[in-house]
Amino acid sequence: MIENIRSIFSFLGQEENGKFGTFDGVFMPTLLTIMGAVMYLRTGWVVGNAGLLGGIAVILLANFITILTGLSISSVATNIRVRAGGAFSIISQSLGLEVGGSVSVPFYLAQAISVAFYIFAFSEGWQRIFPSHPTWLVVFVGYGLCFAIAYVSVNLAVRVRYPILFIILLSLFSIFLGSFERFGGGFTQTPQMWGTFADVSFWGVFAVFFPAVTGILTGVNMSGTLKNPRRSIPIGVMAGIFITMIVYLALAYWVSRVATPTELITNVTIMVDRAAFGWAVMAGILAATFSAALNSLVSAPRVLQAIAEHDIVPGGQIFARETDTGEPRPAMFLTGAIGIATLIFGLSGGGLNTIAPLMTMFFLIVYAVLNGVVLMEQMIGLVSFRPLFRVPVWVPLVGLAGCLGSMFLIAPLFSLVAVIVIVLLYITLSRRQLRAPWSDVRSGLFVTVAEWAAKRVFSMPDSQERAWRPSLLVPVDSPQPLRGSYRFLKAFTYPRGSVHILGMYQDGQKQQVQELESFENTFANDGIFSRVALVSAPDFVSGLRTGMEVLRMAFFRPNILFLPIRPDTNESALQQVLRYTKDNKMGVILYAKHPEISLGYEKVINVWIRDQSPEWEVGLRLSNLDLALLLAYKLARNWQGRINLITIVSDPNEVANGEKFLADLTDIGRMPRTTQTFVRAGTFTEWLPQMPQADLNIFGLQQKINLQFVNNMVTATDSSCIFVRDSGEESALA
């Protein structure tokens, strides 16, 4: 018999070298899991509560979501090499291990829980034959037998499926014969078209029924044991879905014609009573429920094993182990323990109907993500997404919306909690910096979003004061200046700024700047985006000019040139560089570091504001003051320090105007409340020594650079000094 069945489906693939084909590996587990507990024990209950049309609506809605998800799975399965873990492999290869792990952990739990669900269904059928047998004994003995078969090997589980399939087909034939009076049955009832939903809502009925169609992932999860997952998964899954949907619709009509709604609600084994041969249906119930439990118990440990191989769960090295024959024994033991815990929960809380909604939530989340994967792949349009089986974009879109909508209609609170749990798992896994042996499309997604954003930005007016953030261009010819400026760069750019390092070298001397490439990781570890480019140039100035002109065309171009002042800095070359920055609309920060104090305590910043007489007006554009204020604000926030705004006026009559100007500037500019203002009448050199001691002094940069003045200020203030010039694109008051 088994060999005859095998030959019929030989075109779909046969077992070979321990691997399975479409029929054995995907179609059979999918079919037998779907035609399980709910088909025999809850189809009548669904129709009794919802009526014939309501029951058909529940069946079609559940299958509609499943068909769309199956199409999405089929599409992505023909685009990638599906590895072990099924849904986990599909999600991880598209969205990364973090998303795959955060979704697949609760999915694995749903698979492990479903074993108990089917065992409870098995007990309901068993107790119809032996009502004196206690429920706890039936479920634990049945679970033990199921675990023993799965523990021996997947091959034994596969061989058990064929007699089970024969028994199920015999039971369906017996039900069909029950439609005729000559076999003691017949259609004696007029169907109730729409139910009263007296004790349960439509979505409550849907939640109980939906586990019937979750079997599509049972075959997918066996991807690691398939000869050709790319071919077997689409054929096996879609064939299983459509065949079982027809069976369920036929059974819904059948039960509505052979029993009253009250009988359907109160008698979960109504099919046994109305079939031609009740014993055949009883055998079908026991066989189908036991088979569904066995299929879930075989596939769930393989999901856990795939997750554990990438160190996503604690004890990953243990649960990733397998025997020489490929049996994931440690993962099976954990799955068995979870199943026993679920059995205990079900025995204390109501059995089948208590577990079903819990399973429904977990499976809907996985279905939603699988649809989301295909939708995202289609939307970003990467050339790497070229599946052999294409689906319209509305398929994953409607599938995603259907899954999410059903979740929140069934149990809004639990759905919200489930989403929060997945987000927390994702955050936890993201911090662990997991590394996968494959590439995913996340970078492509962000590039697509960035490209869309760039097009939108270029179509808008040029003014971007509200969106301004520091993006520094740091040209160096060795790593030492970058090391000496690192703390300042970090304080100014964190958390939303960026650093573009331009390492310049002459021909044959690239090794002198090669170390600069390591600064990308250094800045990244501190949460700062950075990029390093090494450029061959005959001299520093020409190399910097070329770099600025090339970067001007970039979307995320630098907006500030940062230059540390060194003892060997050439004044005329620096003046030339400042002219180039003006031509390229870049701000300037010249950093003159104190040779001994450096940035001191990193607490106090003095901002020196030139005399604004006679026009003391706070406008959107300040006279070479915007960058200085933004710089001071960023440093004070990251240092948790204090800002002093200082102005020296030559006319004593302007002191009051100066004080009002600084007060308005502090208020309109939303400077920290600890900001202090100082307005003094006299000369700069007179008041310079009398101003508060600071760790950093910020001055405006004059049109013509004077390095002697720069060095004198470092000495006079006994601190590091910054000299800034605006680009015209920033505003401290925006």
Topology:
Blueprint: H1 2-8, H2 22-34, H3 37-41, H4 43-77, H5 87-95, H6 97-129, H7 135-152, H8 154-177, H9 202-209, H10 216-220, H11 229-258, H12 261-266, H13 270-274, H14 278-308, H15 316-319, H16 329-349, H17 352-380, H18 394-410, H19 412-431, H20 442-458, E1 471-476, H21 479-493, E2 498-505, H22 519-525, E3 529-536, H23 540-551, E4 560-564, H24 571-583, E5 587-592, E6 604-609, H25 626-639, E7 642-649, H26 655-668, E8 676-681, H27 684-687, E9 696-700, H28 707-717, E10 720-725
Helix pairs in contact: 2-8, 2-11, 2-14, 4-9, 4-11, 4-17, 4-18, 5-6, 5-17, 6-7, 6-14, 6-16, 6-17, 6-19, 7-8, 7-14, 7-16, 8-14, 9-17, 14-16, 17-18, 18-19, 21-25, 23-24
Explain what this protein looks like in three dimensions.
This protein is α/β, with parallel strands linked by helices. It has three domains: 21-431, Amino acid/polyamine transporter I (Up-down Bundle); 461-566 and 576-584, Rossmann fold (3-Layer(aba) Sandwich); 593-734, HUPs (Rossmann fold, 3-Layer(aba) Sandwich), CATH 3.40.50.620. It contains 28 helices and ten strands. It has helices at residues 2-8, 22-34, 37-41, 43-77, 87-95, 97-129, 135-152, 154-177, 202-209, 216-220, 229-258, 261-266, 270-274, 278-308, 316-319, 329-349, 352-380, 394-410, 412-431, 442-458, 479-493, 519-525, 540-551, 571-583, 626-639, 655-668, 684-687, 707-717, and strands at residues 471-476, 498-505, 529-536, 560-564, 587-592, 604-609, 642-649, 676-681, 696-700, 720-725. It has a ten-stranded mixed beta sheet, with helices on both faces. β1, α21 and β2 (498-505) form a beta-alpha-beta unit. The protein is elongated. Residues 1-16 have low confidence and may be disordered.
